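Bumping with the actual sequence this time:
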Amino acid sequence: MAYKTGGDSADLLGFFHDLVRCETRLYNALNDRLRERHGIVTSQFEFLRHLRDHPGARVGDLAAGFAIGIGATSKSVDRLEKQGWVVRQANPADRRSSLLALTGEGAALVDAAEATAARRLAELMGDTLGESASAVLQTFAKLRSVLERDEIGTPTG
């Protein structure tokens, strides 16, 4: 599909439309597979993965990393804690916040779910991206980096 906006060679609105629809469908497909195989949803998987890869993160760190509100993030962490996958630990540097850590069960779950997620995403995208995969991945990493650096799309509450 050629993307055109006025005199531009790229129709960014068309690209945005395709991008959002692809993201939604991929997210839902991954959600279904994770629920079926591991009893978790994609948002839980992403939080667990972040906590595994960023030990000692706080609720605020998760909220900033995922560009979502602190209240929603805290409620999600409460659910993970209730399942026995995450624990809150006292933060020696700031008594007002807690450090988050995976439990052994949470670590095992995220590792197993990560293998499932990687296989499912390869099934869904591998053939489509083909030889352009590296360029696509680099482009999106660069876009994300710029958006995060400039704090674009960061929630206000």
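The tokens above came from a reply further down the thread. The chain has a mean pLDDT of 90.
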